[in-house]
Design brief:
By secondary structure, this protein is an alpha+beta fold. It has 3 domains: about 90 residues, Rossmann fold (3-Layer(aba) Sandwich); about 140 residues, ATP-grasp fold, B domain (D-amino Acid Aminotransferase, Chain A, domain 1), CATH 3.30.470.20; about 60 residues, Dna Ligase, domain 1 (2-Layer Sandwich). Helices cover about 35% and strands about 25% of the residues. The structure holds adenosine-5'-diphosphate and magnesium ion. The site of adenosine-5'-diphosphate has 20 residues, from strand 7, strand 9, strand 14 and strand 15.
């Protein structure tokens, strides 16, 4: 019998359209000789069609494994993962904790810092902060100002002075109750794909060459202008270090299944910094996560097979765990 895979996509986030594009690519690549595929589409208001997955064990006897292809809020942040845990279903990607920690840029930095992994200097501020300039006084300009919990560069700006900082803060504060301000790095940007549960592996990294002042939403998805160098042109020792850090970050946030870890390399010091980790990276036709694996010897359909295997593996382990005395 074929394995029954439910692809959940769309969703109530600013990345709804990207999710639809990612899901389209995944639906096209899932091997129909192996899988019987069903689709659950969540519209922008959060309505599911054909109907929601229910939070009760055994309520979905027709699903063997769920593939959440939801980027950002209400999907990549542990919320849908929580629903799937309640439903007792196997699902692809990070669990509740790994998803939530990875979605929150402050928590990601804190768990990385605890393991001495390199992150840029930052402050985390509640949106009610009265004197933003004073709270950021320790950071040299330019700074990057970000909502703590969003993705796709939404609500992010680069500020070169106090006036811009205040405007950037106000914008970011519209998107989150918590705002991150961090030192701007002058340098290069890299990404690395990680795959696995207990023994995660890192792909060959790629370099992102933004066409604009930074890698913003348009560059990522609309304009297709950003250049990509795959594999990244780096000295072997730097590549090795980047891959080591990608796996270390993945472990630090307790990720499972997959993630894309993003880096900044500072020109002046040649130092690598972990920028962020994405637990449901883009899977669109121009997305880097599947491309990096392809370059590392794992074609797209095989990558999907592996992700599903990892989901089932974790589910088996969960079922072998006692939750009561
Ligand atoms: N500290 C920084 N220094 C330099 N560039 C940055 C910094 N933080 C973010 N950027 C730029 O902004 C982009 C978006 O920021 P990022 O933290 O990756 O947010 P998102 O979760 O929206 O992708 C990055 O890809 C990079 O181009
Ligand atoms: Mg990013």
């Amino acid at each position: 019998m074929k394995l029954r895979v439910a692809v959940v996509y769309g969703g109530r986030s600013g990345e709804h359209e990207i999710s639809v594009r990612s899901a389209r690519a995944i639906l096209a690549a899932l091997d129909r000789d192996k899988y019987e595929v069903s689709e659950y589409f969540i519209d922008k208001e959060g309505k599911w069609s054909p109907g929601p997955i229910l939070p009760e064990p055994a309520a979905q006897p027709d699903i063997d494994v769920v593939f959440p292809v939801l980027h950002g809020t209400f999907g990549e942040d542990g919320t849908v993962q929580g629903l799937l845990e309640l439903a007792g279903l196997a699902y692809v990607g990070a669990g509740v904790l790994g998803s939530a920690v990875s979605m929150d840029k402050e928590m990601t930095k804190r768990v990385c810092a605890e393991r001495m992994l390199p992150i840029v200097d930052f402050v985390s501020l509640p949106r009610s902060t009265a004197n933003v300039a004073e709270a950021c006084a320790a950071l040299p300009f330019p700074v990057f100002v970000k909502p703590a919990n969003l993705g796709s560069s939404v609500g992010i700006s680069k500020a070169h002075n106090t006036r811009e900082l205040e405007a950037a803060f106000a914008l970011a504060a519209e998107f989150d109750r918590k705002v991150i301000v961090e030192r701007g790095i002058v340098g290069r940007e890299f990404e690395c794909a990680v795959l696995g549960n207990e023994a995660p592996a890192a792909s060959l990294p790629c370099e992102i060459l933004p066409s604009r002042e930074f890698y913003d939403y348009d560059d990522k998805y609309t304009l297709d202008l950003a250049g990509i160098q795959l594999p990244a042109d780096l000295p072997p020792a730097t590549t090795a270090e980047l891959r080591r850090l990608a796996v270390a970050c993945y472990r630090a946030v307790e990720c499972e299944g997959m993630a894309r870890v993003d880096f900044l390399l500072e020109n002046s010091r040649g130092k690598l910094f972990i920028n962020e980790i994405n637990t449901i990276p883009g899977f669109t036709s121009i997305s880097m996560y599947p491309k990096m694996w392809e370059h590392s010897g794992v074609p797209f359909p095989a990558l999907l097979d592996r992700l599903i295997e990892l989901a089932l593996d974790r589910h088996r382990q969960r079922n072998a765990t006692r939750f009561t005395r």
